[in-house]
Amino acid sequence: MQAAVPTSNPRTPSGARRRVGWTVAAVAALLLAALLSLAVGSRPVAPSQVLHALLHDGDDPASTIVRSMRLPRTVVGLMVGAALAMAGTVMQGITRNPIAEPGILGVGQGAALGVVLAITVAGTHGPGGYVWFAFAGAALASVAVYAIASRGRGGASPIKLALAGAALNALITSVVNGVLTTHAATLDEFRFWQIGSIAGPGAGTAWKIWPFLLAGTVLVLSVARGLDALALGEDVARGLGQNVGLVRIVGGVGATVLTGVGVAAAGPIVFLGLAVPHLARALVGTDHRWVLPMAALLGPVMLLGADVLGRVLYEGSEVPSGVMTALIGLPFLVTLVRRKAVAA
Amino acid sequence: MTVETAAGSRLGARDLTLSYEERTVVEGLDLDVPDGEVTVIVGPNACGKSTLLRALGRLLRPARGAVLLDGEELARIPTRRVAQSLGLLPQTPVAPEAITVADLVARGRQPHQRWWRQWSEEDERAVAEAMARTDVAALADRPVDELSGGQRQRVWIAMALAQDTDLLLLDEPTTYLDISHQVEVLDLCRRLNQERGRTVVAVLHDLNQAARYADHLVAMKAGRIVARGRPADVVTAELVREVFGLESVVVADPVTGGPLVVPGRPWGAA
Fold this sequence. Notes:
GO molecular function, one term (chain A): transmembrane transporter activity
Helix content of chain B: 25-40%
GO cellular component, one term (chain A): plasma membrane
Distance between the termini of chain A: 32 Å
Helix content of chain A: over 70%
Strand content of chain A: under 5%
Oligomer: heterodimer
Order of helices and strands of chain B: EEEHEEHEHHHEHEHEEHHEE
Largest sheet of chain B: 6 strands, mixed
Subcellular location (chain A): Cell membrane
CATH architecture of chain A: Orthogonal Bundle
Pfam families (chain A): FecCD
CATH topology of chain A: ABC transporter involved in vitamin B12 uptake, BtuC
Family (chain A): Belongs to the binding-protein-dependent transport system permease family. FecCD subfamily.
Shape of chain B: globular
Number of strands of chain A: 0
Low-confidence stretches of chain B: none
Number of helices of chain B: 9
């Protein structure tokens, strides 16, 4: 009766091997996506030339294109993809809601308001200039949502957070629209930001956001086990010795910072933060110490893949990556949902 | 205020008052949970029995008085240390989608793990043993949401067992189960207590099940304890009338010899 059951324990060699296998595959996919992102475009560069351009100082046209244009774009794609995917994973974990996404705490619209004010009031132009405004807007909006949700009985419960987020989103959207209808020039510039793209930001933006990416990543990884416990319900999580309030706050701050990173750098890239966590869980299970790194790998794969596809779809012009993520992400999610429906 | 539980009792309550917002649910309650025995709390709906269990498990902060664990006020002990001596299973817990049995049971080890010490031999042993004991080892790789109600409840109990605590609190562990699964789960509790000397506190709806499985029965009404003791001493027609407002006859259980409550004549019967 008490004999150990080595074939069916939770750290089975086969289970661990599967997780490691998928993680290795995801790393390979990421390298491939990065290589494609450096090589593909209106002026294709051969993979060998890409490596040459990265490793040596050359001033031939291929090297210049790779280093000065495609490398910053790829790096921003890596950072934004990882940030949004991890933010989505944590938002779904904190709210125990599978359709939660990074924008749920009003972060996306807050950033939008920041950008609109940057253009109209401060007269800032170009993605590099928006970053701080977008970040400030995102931070203010999420603090406001949290303050509203924590009033009254029961504190900031997931449902109250979602409701407060939806309400504030609606409010800010109407303010943004109000400003835009009276400032026609702002509208044009804003529209391009709103679609979401990693083409514009450039190396300067990457330098501005990396400390936030690092801080957000450390915060969300620190609550990985807390999220595992929280998935079993608040009472069980407390019974397992977790400080539920602390997990929510640390995770929420981490996810907000990560969302801010993504939105500030590349605009509201939709869908990625919703879909990637589901893909990651389908591959490595429900343990957040595996799901978070997996999401951080798959997010950039999806974003860079979308970006590359957007470059080659129409000759002579580009479809912004924000448009493409939904187009290529949707089939994945639909397949997942259908597979689950069949299994249930 | 006395700050000690009676001898032979690690867990107890002193002058415990519990309330939700302004509404007081439990008032001035004293309780000693006898070590190594099965204590069952019974009472009518809304008598405060689940609320009391939540307070014993530190899910609810007392408005007045205290819950004591090893002579210390529960509210002052760090959460993780509480979780190392006291396991609890809330009413109808919900598993995340697609989690496997083995993964769910393994989460019971959280209170014993640290960032720098993740998965030990001890964890391995506790999880394997918990699954063997609850008879779910064969289901280890199955998703929890594919299991039957009885299997699922056994998996949750396995998780609580993997936590490896001397004290186990169960809130209506038989809710939504059919009669054979009810008996299965309660037999398991009994076995855990007898074979491993675990102290079990359970809230049950069914007075007859309580009488059948309890060493120590606590009957509650309107936030107070009305009677406590061995089921054979406590369960009488008067108690059933007082606590549940029901006319009944108490006879000897033909199987166990303990008290069996048979409600009075049904409406319409001659």
